[in-house]
Amino acid sequence: MRGTTRKISLPRRFVIDLMRASMEVPFVSLSRPLDVRQLIAARAGVARPPGWAAIFVKAFALVARDEPILRTLYAHWPRPHFYELPRCAAMVAIARVEDGEECILMERVLGGDDMPLAEIDAQLRRAKHAPLDEVGSFRRIKRMCGVPQPLRRLGWWLAGRTGRWHATNFGNYGVTSAAASGGGELHAIGPGPFVLSYGLVRPDHAIEVVIRWDHRVTDAAPIAKTMTRLEQVLNGEISAELRGSRQAEGKPVRAVAK
After folding, report:
1. Which position among 20, 26, 230, 243 has the lowest Cβ density within 10 Å, counted as fewest Cβ atoms?
2. Which of 197, 199, 9, 172 is nearest to 105 (CA)?
3. Backbone angles phi, psi at 196, to 5 degrees
4. Exposed e or buried b for every residue in 162-171, given b needs 16+ CB within 10 A?
C-alpha cells in the first residue's frame, strides 16, 4: 500500500523529543477523587472564574511549599543525587491549533504559590491565544526544535541529567488534562518528577485527580498524603482567595467629586 510522506511539524517534533526524554523516568501513579464542593461554590460566585489548570497549578505549589520532597528531582550528573528547588516551577500543557494542526506546547509558571490566581489564569490564557512568537516559552521551543536532531538529543540529554538545567527546562511538576475534550483518567508522563492531571467535575462534586511521580524520588505514602493536603488546599486557601475576589468585585465604586 502506497501512502503519503508528510513532514513532521515543529510542535510534533517537540512532543516526540519530550516523550523520548520521559521514557527513562520510572513513573508510578496514584488516582483519587477529591471532594471539591466548597471550591465549586466559591468559584461559581466569581464573575470570571479562573480555569481549573490555574487552580491546580497554585494548589500543588501551595502544598509543595511545605513539602520539600515535591520540589525534589533526581539528577544523574556528575553523580546520582537529589536536587531540591527553592520554589515551584510548573510546566502546563497548553492545547493549541497551529497551521490547522492540534498540538500541545508547555508554558512555564514560576512560583505559583506566591501568584494571585487571576495572574496565573491570565498567563495561561495568553499562552492559549497569543501568537507563538509573543510567548517566551513557545519561542524557546521553536528555537530548540529548529536545530538538527543530533544537537536536539544532546540538549535534551544534558537537560535531563543536570539538576539546575533540569529544573530550568522541566520544572518540578507538570499539569495537564483532557477535561476540555470530554474528560477521562489521563496518566501523562514527562521528564519532571511529578505530573498532575485532572478530569471533569462529577455530579457528586468530586474531581478525579491523578499524580504520577518518579519512584526514585519518593514513595506512595507521601503522595497519598499530598492528595489529602491538595483537597484541603482546594477547599481552603484556594476557595478563600476566590471568595475574596468575589467580595472585591462586589464593592461599590465611589464617585469622585470634581
Report:
1. 26
2. 9
3. -110, 130
4. bbebbbebbb
